[in-house]
Design brief:
It is a single chain. With about 475 residues, the protein is an alpha+beta fold. The protein folds into two domains: about 10-280 and about 425-460, 2-methylcitrate dehydratase PrpD; about 285-410, 2-methylcitrate dehydratase PrpD (60s Ribosomal Protein L30, Chain: A, 2-Layer Sandwich), CATH 3.30.1330. It is built from 20 helices and nine strands. The protein has helices at about 10-15, 25-45, 50-60, 80-90, 115-125, 135-150, 170-180, 185-195, 210-230, 245-250, 260, 285-300, 315-320, 335-340, 345-355, 365, 370-375, 385-390, 425-440, 445-460, and strands spanning about 65-70, 75, 95-100, 110, 275, 305-315, 380, 400-405, 410. The chain has a four-stranded mixed sheet with strand order 7-6-8-9. It has a three-stranded antiparallel sheet with strand order 4-3-5. A two-stranded antiparallel sheet has the order 1-2. A hairpin with a 4-residue loop joins strand 1 and strand 2 (about 75).
């Protein structure tokens, strides 16, 4: 497979030349929501075991106090802040996801803001000059555009076992490089370094291991370091995507779809189409949670009425959130992390507790006999039609049927979960989620600090200097 020049050059040009004036209003609004949402998820993650572990390691290691660890009131080197904040924002499964592109007609791009936003805010804090809101928004928009495009360009091969973090170093390097003011030659070298850093697999989703969250931190730090090296004169490969051992020949077994990467590059920004997550679980579980709880609500069905919940889904979702490594349904997850990737469990939790959030999806829930019993009444089957739909969209909606003990049957398919761009949440909805996330922290920022941050994000396009955005958190 050969291409002359490597398509990385188009991405480099885009990363260096995009202007705030080029951004559609909906893209600007999406970036504002993404910053608020990601920081909130990061503060929620400070009290999670994974969040505590990585923060303690960074604090103990020390170094130049360039950037804030969200929710902790301390500063560490900027690259380490990007690493830690990305992991804390990821480890509660509350960060946004790109479900598919209405422009390109492909999907999905995977997790996005959780890697770009921590890196952007860390580098902004560390710079000796003011960073305007327009600069910050543009840098985030560019990085959030590249990650889904790179993933979508792999087509079905993008689901072979790599997560979005496997390609995210490119997007993060673009964001950081923008804020550093790299020219196109230096940005190209940053992209070469980014490819050398690419990593991130989905193996941990089978057993709830912490690697799935580590991937986000690795990608955020990798992209940051790549741009930093390029700023200092690093020379990287000029063909990281389609070279003989480039990303698509090597990682994605030769599959490359140019339209996924380059369609409307520079005019349409894929970060516009991320979905805000309202449940603290894998995105594959969100549609069935939403559809099941909505159908029950609309028809006046309570959990005690339900004899069986039937779910018809696609093969990929079955592998990720239904079956364990031995091919058995994940009815009794042993850890909170495993529960976040157990479709039967989170459907039961949503029906019984009215929500799937860290304050309901906890250690106590793992041993709740009522939840465990209802989870066993969830029956999931693969529908070939859903596999076909999977080729066109990242998270095809599931078909749900509720059968009650008194013989009633209710069924339906709700295509767009609340939070999807076609069923969107408002900025104020994200504000409410932000405050709820802050309440999950062991050392929650003050109400005044939270409200100040919210208002600054609301006014972000007009801010003259963003370097202290998160300092109060």
């Amino acid at each position: 497979m050969q291409a002359t020049p490597d398509p990385i050059q188009a991405l480099v040009h885009h990363a260096c030349t995009a202007r705030f004036a080029d951004l559609p209003a909906q893209t600007v609004a999406a970036v504002q929501r993404a910053v608020l949402d990601t920081v909130g998820a990061g503060i929620a993650g400070t009290s999670a075991p994974m969040g505590q572990l990585v923060a303690a390691a960074a604090i103990e290691t020390g170094g130049r106090p360039d950037a804030t660890l969200w929710g902790r009131g301390c500063r560490v080197p900027a690259a380490e802040a990007a690493f830690v904040n990305a992991i804390t924002a990821r480890c509660r499964e509350l960060d946004d996801v790109h479900e598919g592109s209405p422009v390109i007609g492909m999907g999905h791009g995977g997790h996005v803001s959780v890697m770009v936003v921590p890196a952007a805010l860390a580098v902004a804090e560390s710079l000796p000059r003011p960073v305007t809101g327009e600069e910050l928004i543009t840098a985030i928009a560019v990085g959030s555009d590249l990650i889904p495009r790179l993933r979508m360009a792999a087509g079905p091969a993008g689901r072979l076992g790599f997560e979005a973090p496997a390609v995210a170093p490119f997007g993060v390097a673009a964001t950081v490089g923008r804020l550093y003011g790299l020219d196109q030659a230096a940005m190209g070298n940053a992209m070469g370094a980014a490819y050398a850093h690419c990593a991130g697999n989905v193996q941990a989703t089978r057993d709830g291991a912490w690697d799935v969250w580590l991937n986000a931190g690795i990608a955020a730090r990798a992209g940051f370091v790549s741009a930093e090296l390029a700023r200092r004169g690093y020379h990287g490969t000029s063909a990281p995507l389609l070279g003989a051992a480039g990303l698509y020949p090597l990682y994605f077994r030769g599959e490359y779809h140019e339209r996924g990467l380059l369609t409307e590059l520079g005019t349409s920004f894929e970060g516009t189409y991320v979905s805000t997550k309202l449940y603290s679980s894998c995105k594959y579980t969100h549609n069935p949670i939403y559809a099941t709880t909505e159908l029950a609500r609309r028809h006046g069905i309570i959990a005690a009425d339900i004899e069986q919940i039937s779910v018809r889904t696609n093969s990929h979702e079955m592998r990720v959130v239904v079956l364990d490594a031995d091919g058995r349904p994940k009815y009794e997850p042993a850890t909170v992390g495993a529960a976040q990737f157990s479709l039967p469990f989170v459907i039961a939790l949503g029906l019984l507790r009215g929500d799937v959030f860290p304050d309901t999806l906890n250690e106590q829930a793992l041993h709740d006999p009522e939840i465990l019993a209802l989870a066993r009444r969830v029956v999931v089957q693969v529908d070939p039609a859903k596999d076909e739909l999977l080729k066109q969209t990242g998270y095809p909606p599931d078909d749900i049927e509720l059968r009650t003990f008194d013989g009633r049957t209710v069924s339906g398919c709700l295509p767009y979960t609340l939070g999807h761009p076609n069923n969107p949440v408002t900025f104020d909805d994200v504000v409410a989620k932000f405050h709820r996330c802050c309440g999950l922290s062991d050392a929650a920022p003050s109400v005044t600090a939270r409200e100040t941050f919210v208002e600054e994000i609301r006014a972000l396009p007009a801010l003259a200097d963003c370097r202290n955005l998160v300092a109060g958190l």
